[in-house]
Design the sequence.
């Protein structure tokens, strides 16, 4: 199966209104910048976004929120986005906040083909409202279902034409888990090489999980909160 696409617009051509999509990254580190830009350009609306966070006002998923293309956010942290806050408080946006470990494990469960998990996170809090609670070894656990995502948008440092991916340092965050979990996984990479050039021992995500891949352009790689040391 040919996996290589010319650009983001071509790779995301069939993303439809109302799709459920995963977005790799943590804060602004390792986010699929080209995929997000293509969705903004395409105007795909009523998206259900599964992501660690909602970006910032003018970057990341924040760009989708600006255009009001997101119907629901499923995430663990949203504190850096004023537009997100405005839409939430005004009732324009549905929000499901999930403990970060639970978010990661629900991604992993989807990738492993597991329908659900049990976790102690959230027991006795608002997170548990309406959910099944089971007791194992005298400890309570919540039943949480694996995600069902139509698409997963992934950002990697290097990939090959078979879809094998290598992530660089901190950008190896939610990306590998989400790459396993999407029904269609689309990866953008900084460097695209022929199959066989990557050291198999260095591959983080095997190509079997990746359906489409393209070489990204114009990466900004913004720093969410820049902290510098004073010179002595």
Sequence:
């Amino acid at each position: 199966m040919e996996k290589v696409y010319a650009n983001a617009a071509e790779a995301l051509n069939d993303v439809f209104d109302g799709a459920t999509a995963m977005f790799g990254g943590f804060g602004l580190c390792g986010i699929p910048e080209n995929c997000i830009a293509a969705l903004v350009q395409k105007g795909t609306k009523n998206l259900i976004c599964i992501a660690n966070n909602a970006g910032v006002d003018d970057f990341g998923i924040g760009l989708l929120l600006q255009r009001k293309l997101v119907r629901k956010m499923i995430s663990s942290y949203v504190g850096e986005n004023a537009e997100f806050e405005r839409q939430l408080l005004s009732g324009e946006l549905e929000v499901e906040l999930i403990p970060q470990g639970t978010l990661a494990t629900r991604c992993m469960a989807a990738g492993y083909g597991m329908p659900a998990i049990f976790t102690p996170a959230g027991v006795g809090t608002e997170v548990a409202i309406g959910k099944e609670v089971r007791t194992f070894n005298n400890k309570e656990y919540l039943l949480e279902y694996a995600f069902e995502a139509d698409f997963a948008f992934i950002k990697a440092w290097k990939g090959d034409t078979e879809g094998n991916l290598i992530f660089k340092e901190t950008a190896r965050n939610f990306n590998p888990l989400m790459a396993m979990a999407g029904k269609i996984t689309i990866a953008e990479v900084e460097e695209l090489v022929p199959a066989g050039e990557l050291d198999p021992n260095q591959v983080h995500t095997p190509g079997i999980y990746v359906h489409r891949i393209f070489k990204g352009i114009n990466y900004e790689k913004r720093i969410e909160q820049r902290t510098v040391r004073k010179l002595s």
User: Anything to note?
Assistant: The chain has a mean pLDDT of 94. The chain is about 20% helix and 30% strand.
